Amino acid sequence: MKKFLLVLSGLLWLSGPLSAAEVPVEMKPVQVSEHVWFVQGVAGIATENAGFVSNAGFVITADGIVVFDALGTPALARKLLGLIRQHSDAPIRKVVMSHYHADHMLGLQVFKA
Asked: What is the 8-class DSSP label of residue 98?
């Protein structure tokens, strides 16, 4: 089945789940300090960049990883998780949400799993 993005009443819908590799955006972790990284979303309309319009970050601690915001789709969250795994295989201990907007929280299910 071919996957596509659809915008309906301002909401982003997918025809099927995208894998992290299928998310057509570049996501690079930027190291802020010894244990802290962030990814920066692309300014613009969500339909132009697979919903990657917000920022997220992660901190690697001695006890595990703390993620800050989960991004706007499960596919984006899987992509972020893959980048985190390039730096550490420590367990995800916490996910801190900055606020309730969809572009920051719809990827939460990936981190719950």
From this structure: S
The DSSP code sequence of 18-58 is: PPGGG--S----EEEETTEEEE-PPSS-GGGTTT--S-EEE
72-109 tens-digit pLDDT = 999 999 999 999 999 999 999 999 999 999 989 999 99
Q: Is 89 helix (H, G, I), strand (E, B) or coil?
A: coil
Give the pairing of strands 5-8 and 11-14.
antiparallel
Cβ burial, residue 20 (10 Å; 0-12/13-18/19+): middle
Question: Measured in whole angstroms, how far is the alpha carbon of residue 61 from the centre of its chain?
Answer: 20
CA separation for the pair 53, 63 (Å, rounded): 30
Burial (Cβ within 10 Å: 0-12, 13-18, ≥19) of residue 102: middle
pTM exceeding 0.85: no
For range 47-57, the mean pLDDT = 87
Reading phi first (left if > 0) and then psi (alpha if -120 to 50, else beta), residue 69 is in: left
